[in-house]
Design brief:
This protein is of the alpha/beta class. About 40% of the residues lie in helices and about 15% in strands. It contains 12 helices and 11 strands. Strand 7, helix 6 and strand 8 form a beta-alpha-beta unit. The radius of gyration is 19 Å and the shape is globular. The protein starts with a strand and ends in a 12-residue tail after the last helix. Homotrimer.
Length: about 325
Amino acid sequence: ILFNLYNNIPTLFTLGPVNLKGRSFLTLKDFSSDEIKHLLWVSGDLKHRIKHEKQYLPLLQGKSIAMIFEKRSTRTRMSTETGFSLLGGHPCFLTSQDIHLGVNESSTDTARVLSGLSDIVLARVNSHTTLEELVKDASIPIINGLSDLYHPIQILADFLTLQEHYGSLSGLTISWIGDGNNVLHSFMMTAAKLGVHLRVATPKGYDPDSSIIQEAQRLSKQHGTQFLLTSDPVEAARGSNVLVTDTWVSMGQEEEKKQRIKDFLGYQITMQTGSVAKPDWTFLHCLPRKQEEVDDQVFYSPRSLVFPEAENRKWTIMGLMVSLLTDYSPQIPMPRF
């Protein structure tokens, strides 16, 4: 019998063999339940050993990461740079002024050049097809740091945060109230694999991608979870453990701001929204946050997990990079999922 270090109770949970070394990470659609749980386990392990036990683990010593940013970000840049450095590696940050994917040099040539100069690439891009082009010609792992279609590294941080808070994930209900965007798409590709029910409310005209809806419905049926789509925020929030939203106006959509704020009227998360959720409900937001999305009473309340969620971006990107580059096995017992 192993004892879970998160809540000090016996655990007999096991995973099948998982080896992610050399894999790319574009979408959680491509990863199994056991593989996602393994990534969360490694992330929690590194957090425990480095943050709490104060151990020095130079697991990536001698390695380098090329970080391509077509879109700015506080959390993605800081978590990746500090995390890779903390593990002994060298991060190299490339903005659109340093590298013009598909403009000054083709994505094919860029992929081949970076494969010879670095060990792994994290790319935060405008179009998901850019990532697919990089993967096609790279001989090293490519990580999706964000695309128009998915934001998988954010979802790893969200689920680590919920696992730490609730002690386990299976049986939880998450309610997404907001835009049918890349973050929601990644939730839809992941929740059912972890035994999590997903209730989604988006305004009419802001629905998730239809093909991703079909895959989420298939996954929900396969894993025996509930998946609801509605345009009613109250219906989505009812009976939920976790209320989640995101920006209503993503980068590149600034000209649509006035119309979007009008269309999202009634979607702000407030204590009134939470009144129909479960008594233990919590709140997540990947940040940056605007007040029209969630009011201060919720955002700065004890129910809000947004700042632990932001910190966990660091531990989960570290867990992911270690898993894709090494044969590391977690040292702490596997937590409950």
